[in-house]
Design brief:
Layout: H1 2-17, H2 20-32, H3 41-72, H4 76-82, H5 86-99, H6 103-113, H7 118-128, H8 136-139, H9 141-148, E1 150-156, H10 157-169, H11 174-182, E2 183-188, H12 198-201, E3 202-205, H13 208-215, E4 224-225, H14 229-250, H15 252-264, H16 268-296, E5 300-301, H17 312-323, E6 336-341, E7 348-353, E8 359-364, E9 368-373, E10 383-390, E11 393-401, E12 408-412, E13 418-423, E14 429-434, E15 438-443, E16 448-454, E17 460-465, E18 471-476, E19 480-485, E20 493-496, E21 502-507, E22 513-518, E23 522-527, E24 533-538, E25 544-549, E26 555-560, E27 565-569, E28 574-579, E29 586-591, E30 597-602, E31 606-611, H18 612-621, H19 623-626, E32 634-639, E33 645-650, E34 656-661
Parallel strand pairs: 1-2, 4-5, 6-34
Antiparallel strand pairs: 1-3, 6-10, 7-8, 8-9, 9-12, 10-11, 13-14, 14-15, 15-16, 17-18, 18-19, 19-20, 21-22, 22-23, 23-24, 25-26, 26-27, 27-28, 29-30, 30-31, 31-32, 33-34
Helix pairs in contact: 1-3, 3-5, 5-6, 5-11, 14-17
Length: about 675
């Protein structure tokens, strides 16, 4: 039997390589030779193993092709569950072929079937496309993680039974081996799950999912800082409200007499208007009080960093802003001031707006940073660089060069495109990050570069000042985030753990944590003091581009490349609710000062306002009755003419500033 197998293997090899004459000669020799000839055992083993290795690529190609056809031809009620199996099998078949040295055949297999998975897994496929040799499987962390981990697939009992019956009957059994080695089925009784559950149906186990569960059990202190300016303002406002109550009671009799006189004088029309107005104001103030209550009731925590002292005059100015803050709610939406960059010739990469909206910065591909001072911009202009659109006033002011002079302050020093810029809370400093792997600190008072921070090894995608200044965080292509202080040129902490680029970074309200969003589709929360990851948020289906923290520190919003926004509860690490509505990348997010509204800016040229209170409270009351549909409440969509929204910023008085570049 072994002799026959050897002869078949040799003939098959000659036929495959096209050696027709040698094949005919061998067949003729076999017919003449006696049946008693014996092949050396070592040679026989060598020939048989070589024959098997030659057939491996064909087995994978044939096995996957048959499985794919069978899945697509299955009954509709089970098809969506069975289709979940195809992507893991496709990935591991490709990786197995590469590991066994069949690189060319692996490439053919990958290119033939990749189109099936482009829509859902385009970014993963781009990474796997770079695997060209077996050594890449160990060098590339993403591929190494896939090889070491099993895939968890949710499937109903009957769907699994159908699949197992097919695999046991089919030839070759290569696909059964792949599934047995790399897939773990979570079998549920009853009917198949709905198609809408597909996002959570396929997850890595033994890898990110298990790690996330373990990490998310750690305790975090999400409250606000003790003795913060907001807390002082709340105490002061409660005292003022008590005084107003006592004054109101003393004036009650006078107001009743006044109402009688108005009624007798025949001015009932004006009185009824005033009463209506009072009702509306009363209703609004009630909702505002209930929404701001969550901020005031947030637990207080001690800072882990040594925080900078706030000058007395600055503290008074901030308190004045807080006193004059407009209380926003679903009934009282903010005014929006939009800064539009024009004539940038596709050179603008990022924008930033100071807390009070008086300064606007732009980072450009020519390695320059430009800052416009809105208070110094003249009304009569010849040419324009920045244009403002105000939601409450349809007339537009063109702002630019005045009498031939430059209307902006030019900061030069980077050796590559500027990808991010951020103002300090007081607007006296601005940070910029670049593809030259450095971060630079600039003074807006001196109009000069003060420090160049070096530490990252690759382009720095994002940089953000802490809420109280002095400290800042950066994120980079080197898959790390770093914590810095203005007075030191080396980082204080390095946060490593993401599997791909760290695209965005955001500080927690109490300065004890930072959040990072990555191209690996996860968001992580890091402890500043220890440098440890204390939460992993899994749920996005594309790279995470923007982050925002709620003012009370309990919730976080993250936006991704597909236009999905997810609201997370930091204490549990779970997604409270997804916010669907944008049709393209969500580049920026911002919470209003009392946390009742979330603003989102997107590449689809819109700013959307979301009712956060409904979104985060909905699951507790309405989830069992209405599902998730009623929780996803978009209050208003503000479209621009043709301007993708780069940045959003709520001022301390709750005016919303936005910026973007006009795209023709």
């Amino acid at each position: 039997m072994e002799e026959e197998e050897i002869e078949k293997a040799v003939l098959a090899y000659l036929k495959k390589k096209g050696f027709k004459q040698t094949e005919l000669a061998l067949q003729e020799e076999q017919s003449k030779s006696s049946l008693n000839t014996q092949t050396d055992p070592a040679v026989a083993r060598r020939i048989l193993s070589f024959s098997e290795s030659e057939n491996i690529p064909a087995r994978y190609m044939e096995g996957y092709s048959k499985l794919r056809s069978w899945t697509y031809n299955s009954l509709d009620s089970y098809k969506h569950e069975l289709l979940r199996v195809l992507y893991p099998v496709f990935i591991h078949s490709f990786l197995d072929l590469v590991a066994k040295g069949h690189v060319q055949e692996a490439r053919t297999f990958f290119n033939r079937f990749r189109e099936d998975h482009e829509m859902m897994h385009a970014r993963d496929l781009l990474k796997l496309e770079g695997i060209l040799t077996p050594s890449h499987l160990d060098e590339m962390e993403f591929a190494h993680t896939l090889r070491q981990s099993k895939v968890n697939i949710k499937i109903c009992e009957y769907s699994k039974e159908l699949l197992m019956q097919y695999l046991q009957k089919s030839e070759p059994i290569t696909m059964l081996g792949v599934i047995n080695e790399h897939i773990n089925f979570q079998v549920s009784p009853g009917q198949p799950s709905s198609i809408s559950d597909d996002a959570d149906a396929v997850t890595l186990i033994g890898g990110s999912q298990d790690t996330a569960k373990q990490i998310n059990q750690k305790e975090i202190r999400w409250g606000l800082l003790e003795d913060s300016l907001d807390e002082r303002m709340e105490k002061a406002s409660s005292l003022v409200s008590d005084l107003e109550k006592t004054e109101g009671e003393s004036k009650k009799g006078d107001s009743e007499d006044g109402k009688k006189k108005l009624g007798e004088g025949g001015k009932q029309g004006n009185t009824s208007k005033k009463l209506k107005k009072d009702k509306v104001v009363g209703a609004t103030s009630k909702t505002v009080r209930s929404e701001t209550h969550s901020v005031s009731m947030a637990p207080r925590v001690k800072p882990e960093l040594t925080l900078p002292a706030i000058p007395t005059e600055v503290e008074h100015a901030v308190l004045e802003d807080l006193r004059n803050r407009v209380q926003l709610s679903s009934l009282a939406l903010p005014s929006v001031s939009f800064y539009t960059f024009i004539n940038t010739h596709n050179g603008l990469n990022c924008t930033s707006i100071s807390q009070d909206g008086s300064l606007v910065a732009g980072g450009f591909s020519d390695s320059s940073l430009k800052v416009w001072d809105m208070s110094k911009m003249g009304q009569q202009v010849d040419a324009s660089n920045v244009q403002t659109e105000n939601d409450s006033n349809p007339s537009e002011n063109l702002l630019g060069s005045e009498n031939g002079k430059r209307s902006y302050t030019l900061f030069q020093g980077h050796a590559g495109p500027v990808y991010s810029a951020t103002f300090s809370p007081l607007g006296d400093f601005i940070l910029s990050s670049s593809s030259d792997s450095t971060i630079r600190l600039w003074s807006t008072k001196l109009n000069a570069n003060l420090v160049c921070y070096k530490g990252h090894n690759y382009p720095v995608w994002d940089v953000q000042f802490s809420p109280l200044g002095h400290y800042f965080a950066s994120s980079s292509h080197d898959r790390t985030a770093r914590i810095w202080s203005m007075d030191r040129i080396i980082p204080l902490r390095i946060m490593a753990g993401h599997l791909s680029d760290v695209d965005c970074v955001q500080w927690h309200a109490n300065c004890n944590y930072i959040a990072t969003g990555s191209s690996d589709k996860t968001v992580r929360l890091w402890d500043i003091q220890s440098g440890e990851c204390v939460r992993i948020f899994i749920g996005h289906r594309s790279m995470v581009l923007s982050l925002a923290m709620s003012p009370d520190g309990r919730y976080m919003a993250s936006g991704d490349e597909d236009g999905t926004i997810m609201m997370w509860d930091l204490s549990s690490g779970r997604c409270v609710t997804p916010l669907m509505g944008h049709t393209s990348c969500v580049w920026t997010l911002a919470f209003s000062c009392e946390g009742s509204l979330l603003a989102s800016g997107s590449a689809d040229c819109t700013v959307k306002l979301w009712d956060v209170t409904t979104s985060v409270r909905g699951p507790k009351t309405d989830d069992s009755k209405t599902g998730g549909a009623n929780r996803l409440r978009s209050l208003k969509t503000l479209p621009t003419k043709s301007t993708p929204v780069y940045s959003l910023q709520f001022s301390r008085r709750n005016l919303l500033f936005a910026a973007g570049v006009l795209s023709k």
